[in-house]
Design a protein that fits this description.
Blueprint lengths: L6 H19 L2 H17 L7 H25 L13 H10 L3 H12 L4 H8 L3 H20 L15
Helix pairs in contact: 1-2, 1-3, 1-5, 2-3, 4-7, 5-7, 6-7
Length: about 160
């Protein structure tokens, strides 16, 4: 890595954002582990990384791979995901809808919506082509729209209105 790179400051500035990114891909209980593993691998490979932009790409690509591996491991060993409390709020419905997406699609949605990355940056961070990032985001967005359009049983848009 170039002279003057302060890994501790970089870790401090990126830790919360990377943990949130990992939580969007895997379950929140595994997000911190995935982020720590990504930082460890970055530390181990600093000598091969020329600048901070390359460090960001390496970090996010590694975090995505580690998070996806954790999702696969849970499925393989049939570990149940920690169940969120029953709640029909929009936040809860959105979390459930995101959980229904493929891990790669959750990563794309997180980068596009939360971090406001362009498709070129998403592709770079995930080690894919820009057309792949556009396609995955489009498909994920359509799936989210479909899931969120479905209302829970007994839920009506007029349920909470008061007539005088």
């Amino acid at each position: 890595m170039y002279d003057g790179f302060d890994f501790d400051a970089y870790l401090t500035s990126q830790a919360a954002k990377l943990t949130g990114y990992c939580a969007a891909i895997t379950v929140p209980a595994d997000a911190e582990d995935a982020a720590q593993e990504a930082f460890l691998r970055l530390w181990q490979n600093l000598g091969r990384i020329p600048n901070e932009a390359a460090a960001n790409a390496f970090l996010y690509k590694t975090a995505a791979r580690v998070s996806i591996d954790l999702v696969r491991r849970r499925k393989r060993f049939r570990e149940p995901d920690p169940a969120p409390p029953a709640d029909d709020s929009l936040s809860s419905r959105m979390s459930s809808a995101l959980a229904a997406l493929r891990p790669e699609d959750r990563a794309v949605v997180w980068l596009r919506v939360v971090e406001e990355c362009g498709y070129d940056e998403i592709a770079r961070r995930l080690g894919k082509k820009e057309t792949w990032a556009r396609k995955r985001y489009s498909l994920a967005r359509r799936k989210l729209e479909t899931i969120l359009a479905e209302r829970p049983k007994g839920d009506s848009p007029c349920t909470n209105t008061t007539v005088n």
